[in-house]
Amino acid sequence: MTDLDQTTRTEMEAATFRRLLQHLDEHKDVQNIDLMILADFCRNCLAKWLMEAATEQGVELDYDGAREYIYGMPFSEWKSLYQKPASEVQLAAFEARQAQKKSTT
Question: pTM of the predicted model, to two decimals?
Answer without folding.
Answer: 0.90
